[in-house]
Specification:
The complex is a heterodimer of chains A (115) and B (116). Chain A is an all-beta fold. Chain A is 0% helix and 52% strand. In chain A, a hairpin with a 6-residue loop joins strand 5 and strand 6. In chain B, strands 2, 4, 5, 8, 9 and 10 form a 6-stranded mixed β-sheet that branches. The chains are: A mainly beta (115), B mainly beta (116). Chains A and B meet through strand 6, strand 10 and strand 11 of A and strand 4, strand 5 and strand 8 of B.
Amino acid sequence: AQTVTQSQPEMSVQEAETVTLSCTYDTSENNYYLFWYKQPPSRQMILVIRQEAYKQQNATENRFSVNFQKAAKSFSLKISDSQLGDTAMYFCAFMMGGPGYALNFGKGTSLLVTP
Amino acid sequence: GAGVSQSPSNKVTEKGKDVELRCDPISGHTALYWYRQRLGQGLEFLIYFQGNSAPDKSGLPSDRFSAERTGESVSTLTIQRTQQEDSAVYLCASSYTGTVGIDEQFFGPGTRLTVL
């Protein structure tokens, strides 16, 4: 079974600063995908960024980027120029490649962006 | 276009009662997932539907939980004889095919179930 660990229950960052959220995972598979989801108080899960394990290049989406270290099984999320609207729970998730696999989620990191 | 919708938004019930939760996926999405999110936790997989194939029920926590899906549309999650530990947010997600790992799952807003 695959496990996803987020070791930071809560984090805080000032507006315009940069913050990094940590995630590690455990798997013996080679074909898989990694995701970061954002969940604001509205409960709506929003995909922030995804990474295919076979790609060496780190994924980037505007202010969001990842540091994917496959050998170390680490997948951290960096948020640059933090905005008040970034305040939310952030979940790291793992999914096996292939048909019909569900997402395995970590327990989440609560991020607070302060003025 | 419309996203994934779920109803009711909130449900309060008494221990021992049955509840039904509804999910309307995005039109054209053949794959549908149910997840449970307990307070302060990540999401736990419950069940997966793909087209007309037999569902993957491997995440259902007990035989009190069941789900159905009508073709490639609405799904209902039923919890019989509810217990207090069933209190959680139940989230539904759909994806286009579910046949490749990178199909993005689009989530609904969830149903918050409280069992008194």
